[in-house]
Amino acid sequence: MTAADLWPKSVGASGESAENVGARLSRVLTAADEETNEVAGTTCLEELCRFAGGDRGFIAIFDDDERLEHTWLWDDSGRPLAFPEPGTHLDALSGSMAGFMRIGRTLAVGDLESLELGPSESALMEANGGLPRAGMMLPVLLGGRLLGVVSVHSMDEPRAWTKVMIDQMEAFGELVVRMLDRNRERQALAAANLRARRIAAHLPDGLVMLSTEGLINWASPSFEAMSSLSAEELEHRQFLELIAPSDRERLTKQLALVAAGPDASIAVRLANPAGDWRWADLSLTLASEPHSGVPDEIVITVRDTHDRHMREQRLVEESDRDPLTGLANRGAFDRFLTELSGTDAPVMVAFCDIDNFKTFNDARGHDDGDHILRSVAGAIGRAVRGRDMVARIGGDEFVVVVVDPGHDAARLGDRLVSAVRAIAAEGRGEPTMSIGVCGPAPGPAAREMVRLADEAMYAAKRAGKDRWVQGNPQSGTWADLLGP
Hints:
Blueprint: H1 3-6, H2 18-31, H3 37-52, E1 56-62, E2 68-75, H4 90-94, H5 98-102, E3 107-109, H6 119-127, E4 134-142, E5 145-154, H7 163-200, E6 206-211, E7 216-219, H8 221-227, H9 231-234, H10 245-259, E8 264-271, E9 277-288, E10 295-304, H11 306-319, H12 330-340, E11 346-354, H13 357-364, H14 366-383, E12 389-392, E13 397-403, H15 409-425, E14 433-442, H16 446-462, E15 467-471
């Protein structure tokens, strides 16, 4: 669409076509930003006055309470010019004309000497160099409220303003007021963003603004420090990329939840480019565009809680540990079995009991007995993988749970029996163990496998101790595979 499509082929008082004036107004307003909006407004006002044949004019923008918020003035009459201060109400500014302004009705008078003005209008005219001969006031409405007014005056000569001229000035006036107001909003937003960045720079918590698609629109300096990335590196990046992979699925669900309306919170691990990570608590809120009310951003507050999480983790670990051997205790073991009930991964269980431990403890004393318990616990732990569960569930009873074993019961039984026998070779006593092995079977059968492995352990003791016996989880019978 060209300027000729927007503006009819009319000619103003200056002899210039509406097409040319409209094109210049559009260029000036489109190029204006928050720094040049003042000059753009004055330039446009001069164009409007010259096109209409006026030598003085103003543009006024009002707030929601109809109070003067901002003005642009242009004067080529050489007369005194005074204008009400910001905050002046529309009624005080326009007097009896205010009602016409509110309904968006243009007032155009070619010769004001023919009108009888009220006291407020007369006072305003006198303060501005006397009564103009001609005047035009062009109100611009936005959503039913008065957004602004363009006023053009001819101070000494009457004007014969035709309907074509008035229509053209109404179109120009609406363009200019709306674009100037938009640029002022951008200016206010830029100032607010600057203030927000200054405030955010002094907050310990990080702030991140995401698009509803999860892209980072803005990040505070404190979050830049948390992520070890600059603002340029963060902008337009997927926020999920900064989260530890194992936490991304949970955060994705929370982002979807907050995008639907309710606030959300979650604890995740933030990863930095060096591969390090720290725990952080995230609070997520959906924010809306002020004018339309349309949700368009997710605001995330990021609080570094790594030290707290690590303390809590240590407390949990300590509460889950047997204080003598450092192995998992019965409580931790029971929770582990509960977790296994939700998986179909193959599981193998070994129930272990130190042979003749009571006799040894009574004869040698508790210090030597504790030494044996610690030695056996260490031997069992070394015999299996680090990710396998090893727990002390009673005085001299231990349970091993191997997930995805990759081998049969014989290999596990032989390894555990041999590991305890090796303690004697190291000169740390002569303990042996009776062991019942059960599995493999799916995770939900783990508790029953512990019971069967316990029974198999007693079968090993009856068979002479220092050996292992396999239990059959399908039939409940023993394979009677004895260790060497």
